[in-house]
Amino acid sequence: MTEQAIEQAAAILSRAKRIVVFTGAGISTESGIPDFRSPGGVWDRFDPTEFTYQRFLSSEDARRKYWSLSKLFYEPLVSANPNPGHDAVVALERWGRLDCIVTQNIDGLHQRAGSSPDRVIELHGTALSVSCLSCRKRHSREEVQARVEAGEEVPRCEGCGGIMKPDTISFGQPMPERETAEAFRRAENCDLCWVIGSSLVVTPAAHVPVAAVNAGAKLIILNGSETPLDEAADVVLRGKAGEVAPRLIERARALAGETA
Ligand code: NAD
Q: What CATH number should be reported for the domain holding residue 223?
């Protein structure tokens, strides 16, 4: 990544007033949570077709496997702390330029970093709670995970006995309607969409930045590797979110004549 690219991105950022930050698993890898598609990521170790929503619904065996592997995913997620990439997004909000964060992440780290919860749109749900698929009662993930640790192989709703599932969106599961509609509405009204740490191959989430560009917004992509949207971007920054995002904000603020 060149200094010229940072300079170009900072110039765009310094002029933007309604920024939609679109984040993916890459913003959280520096917090120790593996992404899905980098070498050594989750899909190098597991077969995604084994973890579809349909399998979870239709087979007790699939649910047992899901919950037995859940410790592997949940532990690093709850023990992780936000990193300078998340902090940079908080700085953008405090600067008054952030419209919202549309995140594919399920780790809650934007909120833990200090981003206002009402500005975080979780497109793929959250791993921090669990719901009964029958009566919709919501439970804390911590509480349900403790039951699993204590030996309950497939936890059931204590109220109605229904199947319980973490509030994450699995493959094959419908997207949350309100969040999806809101994400597209915000994207269509922003003046800059800033992608941080996403491969932009998971749809329909990846259509959010496309909607922003189609509506006339600028696009900056900060990611560790190529994405299918790189050609549509005004600037592509190749690097680590936790290193590049803070630099970019600092430079944009300097260009806007402000100090951090
Ligand atoms: P992805 O795994 O498809 O892509 C992550 C991208 O981030 C890659 O292109 C990689 O090059 C880049 N990256 C990795 N580390 C980076 C860093 N330090 N700085 C900048 N870029 C970096 O992730 P995705 O696009 O979010 O889609 C995967 C799906 O997986 C999403 O639906 C998401 O819900 C889920 N997921 C979430 C988490 C989480 O909540 N932290 C973790 C894994 C997967």
A: 3.40.50.1220
- Helices H, strands E: what count in the chain? 10, 9
Point out the ligand 1 atom lying closest to the alpha carbon of residue 205. Answer: 32
Residue 35 neighbours by CB distance under 10 Å = 20
Kindly give the parts of the chain with pLDDT less than 70.
1, 38-46, 259-260
Whose C-alpha lies nearest to ligand 1, atom 43?
A: 35
- What per-residue confidence (pLDDT) applies to 86? 98
Same domain, 67 and 190: no
Distance, in Å, from the CA atom of 180 to the CA atom of 169, rounded to the nearest integer, reads 12
| Domain extent for 134 | 35-79+126-168
Name the domain count of the chain.
2
**Whole-number pLDDT of residue 207:** 98
